[in-house]
Design a protein that fits this description.
The longest helix is centred in the middle third of the chain and has 18 residues, at about 145-160. The chain has a single domain (about 30-330), classed as Alpha-Beta Barrel (TIM Barrel). It is α/β, with parallel strands linked by helices. A hairpin with a 2-residue loop joins strand 6 (about 135-140) and strand 7. About 40% of the residues lie in helices and about 20% in strands. It is globular. The protein contains 12 helices and 12 strands. The protein has an 8-stranded parallel β-barrel, surrounded by 8 helices. A two-stranded antiparallel sheet has the order 6-7. The mean pLDDT is about 95. Helix 8 (about 235-245) crosses helix 9 and helix 9 runs parallel beside helix 11. The N and C termini lie far apart (about 55 Å).
Length: about 325
């Protein structure tokens, strides 16, 4: 008789039913892991669709409250809010960003008044406010780093005074975390959290977002390679994160998400600080269009979010946040 040697260890035992698969799952997703980005547009009364982001809308100052109510009822605890301002108010220095009565301040005040427990993450950068579409002050086709820091610090104070819970510099100017932290502390905002877009790459995945905030046409053929990171660089991301933590960042973020899972993983392993990922507009649009056309199963959306958690992300900014809770009963 021929002796057959069968395996004593069978990893498939833990895959034989949905129940055991879930019981032994190494990574899980809950509504506590999700942050919903929200676009608000000055002068808009109701809401309007964003053509390049199927299912995502810009909201007016009043209609956004209905959106926040739905987000709140779904159990999402944080939003990241991005303004679309009147084009007539854009200029070379982004001066509208530092006016205390500007549009985004009005929106944040309104949201916090009605939903005091909703965490509001406010973006700090000048691209929604500049007529050239860059995140900083432009002079002779160069971004002026140190002059931009002054404006970003003032913008942070304005957002903090409006009620933002988390200040999120996304501009990638050198030294901005330390500069903003110092100014916040000097103005009695010591408890305001700084979420740094610490490793923000010069990615082609941002196109739909720039459509959403109407900065794409202003930017034209120019790019942001002089301040956003080279997608080929890995160690530079670690340097950026180390500097931001040293300067006072409470949370760090990697943007975009899926193409940079290795960066998320290494940052979490190296620094052991709260680490977020941003599943950006291009990732959303690419997946959403594929699902809508039947090219991909909708479960691919959950698969991508799991990949962020597996890499080490503590939370994910995703335009899918609401849909994930509805579709997958989180």
């Amino acid at each position: 008789m021929i002796s057959r040697k069968f395996p004593s260890t069978r990893l498939r035992r833990l895959r034989q039913s949905d129940s055991i698969i879930k019981l032994t799952s190494e990574c899980g997703i809950s509504k506590d892991d999700l942050i919903q980005p929200v676009f608000v547009k000055e002068g808009l009364k109701d809401k309007e669709p964003i053509e390049s982001m199927p299912g995502i809308f810009r909201f007016g100052c009043e209609s956004v409250l209905d959106e926040i109510e739905e987000i709140d009822q779904l159990g999402i605890k944080a939003i990241a809010i991005f303004p679309v301002i009147d084009p007539a108010k854009k200029d070379a220095t982004g001066s509208e960003a530092i006016k205390t009565d500007n549009f985004i301040s009005e929106v944040i005040c309104s949201i916090k008044s009605k939903f005091p427990n909703m965490l509001v993450i406010a973006d700090v950068a000048l691209d929604p406010y500049t007529d050239h579409g860059h995140d900083g002050i432009l002079e002779n086709n160069k971004i002026l780093n140190d002059q931009t820091l002054e404006v970003l610090a003032e913008q942070s104070i304005v957002l903090a005074e409006a009620g933002a819970d988390i200040i999120a510099p996304s501009d990638m100017m050198d030294g901005r975390i330390g500069f903003i932290r110092k100014r916040l502390d000097e103005n009695s905002f010591e408890e305001k959290i700084i979420l740094s877009y610490a490793a923000k790459y010069n990615s082609k995945f941002y196109g739909p977002f720039r459509d959403a905030v109407n900065s794409k046409n202003n930017l034209g053929k120019s790019d942001k390679s002089s301040y956003q990171m080279n997608p080929a660089n890995f160690l530079e991301a670690l340097n950026e994160v180390a500097m931001d933590i040293e300067e006072g960042a409470d949370i760090v973020m990697v943007k975009p998400g899926m193409p940079y899972l290795d960066i998320i993983s290494r940052i979490k392993h190296e620094f052991k600080v709260p680490t977020f990922a941003y599943q950006v507009s291009g990732e959303y649009s690419m997946l959403m269009e594929s699902v809508n056309k039947g090219w991909l199963d909708k479960n691919v959306i959950m698969e991508t979010i799991i990949s962020f958690k597996r890499a080490g992300a503590d939370a994910v900014l995703s335009y899918f946040a609401k849909d994930l809770i509805k579709e997958f009963n989180l």
